[in-house]
Amino acid sequence: MTKKILILNGNPKSTSFCQQLANTYIVEAREYYEVKHFNLSEMAFNPSLDSGYDAKQDLEPDLQDFQKCLLWAEHIVIFSPIWWGGLPAKLKGLFDRSFLPHFAFKYECDNPQPTPLLIGKTARIVLTMDMPEPYLEDQARPVLEQLDQYTLQFSGVEKAATNLFGSMILATQEQKQNWEKLIHSLANQGL
User: Fold this and answer.
1) I need a surface site. Which of 38, 75, 102, 127 has the fewest CB within 10 A?
2) pLDDT tens digit sequence for 137-156
């Protein structure tokens, strides 16, 4: 059976190095695996969870499709820049709007611990940033806590493998090519 991989380019810009990395992964992974992908820049939805969980907010078609693919996927690969020490607002909104109770997790009886509903899935998070290499882990830590620990793992996805690439503004063409080669290799292995 072929591995099912969902790839999300979480950069809201239509052209970016994240897009280039995601495209590299998509092209290579398609040779060996079933692949579905989303570009955040092409998705149309209100990123604000206007009433929290107090009222139902209908999901736009792109969010419905994204949820279907989340259920379908065995492995999730997310590419995102770090902006101002966090995720881009639209990407955060994607998770706010799609990782909902009774889809990604549920509370049962009086138990304050949620039951995760997206179990049996693995993930990889690839982050780009402008910070120089010695500061990559410090810059990425809060993003990984929010995205990996408190979103993906909270919902049942195994702890994500990570790749941190930076500094984007100081990177040479050779460094960028090396990062693309790494992504190519990971895609080839379905990691």
Assistant:
1) 102
2) 999 999 999 999 999 999 99
